[in-house]
Write a structure and sequence with these properties.
Blueprint (H helix, E strand, L loop, with lengths): L20 E4 L2 E5 L10 E4 L2 H9 L6 H22 L4 H13 L6 H15 L7 H29 L4 E5 L14 H10 L3 E7 L6 H12 L4 E4 L4 H6 L3 E6 L3 E3 L4 E4 L2 H11 L2 E5 L5 E2 L16 H4 E2 L2 E2 L12 E4 L6 E4 L2 E4 L3 H8 L2
Parallel strand pairs: 4-5, 4-7, 5-6, 7-10, 8-11, 10-15
Antiparallel strand pairs: 1-2, 2-3, 8-9, 9-14, 12-13, 15-16
Length: about 350
Amino acid sequence: MGLNKMEAQPLTIRANPDKAIVWEHDRLYLLDQRILPTQEGYIELQTATATADAIRDMVVRGAPAIGITAAFGVVLAARSAFKASTENWRELIQDELDILAASRPTAVNLFWALSRMKQLIASMGEENPEPRLLQEAMLIHQQDIAANKAMGALGAALIEGNTSVITHCNAGALATGGYGTALGVIRSAHAANKIERVYADETRPWMQGSRLTAWELAQDSIPVTLLTDGAAASRMARGGIGWIIVGSDRIAANGDVANKIGTYNLAVAAKFHGVKVMVAAPTSTIDMSAASGADIPIEFRDSAEVLKWHGRQIAAPGVDAWNPVFDVTPAALVDAIVTERGVVLSPNSKKMAELMGV
């Protein structure tokens, strides 16, 4: 299906960042994050292939949200496979599972969720797999929301006094099952009168900060000011910034963090200015098979995303673009990794292993 052919359906429920992923009427609905904040619409999905397209085309984005969406994609795949053959559905479902797995390479939650669903498939008998798989997908969704609220409380406890913070990309409810990771911390800290203002990087080239993060914060009546990505260091130099708070798409066993491109720049500038860096992410984002950030696959996307905006050329003709979606921030630049299981201060391999119980 592709980006241009996948259009938002008429809005049937009120757009809400905490309801970006909705299972209703036996099908999956995704709040279309490509058109926010100027338009609000939900994409209706009835197949696993369409779900993979939605992930790839960034209708949904953010590692936890991608994992949850993929889990529901497995439900749709099972429905199709069982309808085609009640005896051979396990074989028939494999192709669609592979399509889901290929949708985005960096977000480890995608593979975590698919692995969890595959384990359930392996344990099943001859019954229709859809009800049990749907129950599991809903459980993954509910557990993510609970984890985010736990992270919110733990992260907020690290913030002393009343300060301002900078965030990058979107690690809010839109990027998760609800409440958010980095923005979950910010929501909890703001409720505790610990955050005066949030500075949100625009986050180019997809502008998730200006389109999504600012929209979410405005929905929650949290004061927010936009920054161009290149202005963050200058804003830190003026003082009053206590923390950089971001999410992650994959965290290596040594505490290196893969997040939206530009996060590394922020962490380097923060180190120079004495600003602390907090990464909020569920343990499903931690990949203990990746020894360091060098082992994390980094997704590269079409250069047109940089060279054009809404189909209009903005760069000089004939110019190429280097378009990595993520960068890796070394653990040495991270002050705290906040998970639902607890907080890791100054992360390293030993501390990460202790957190994960390995």
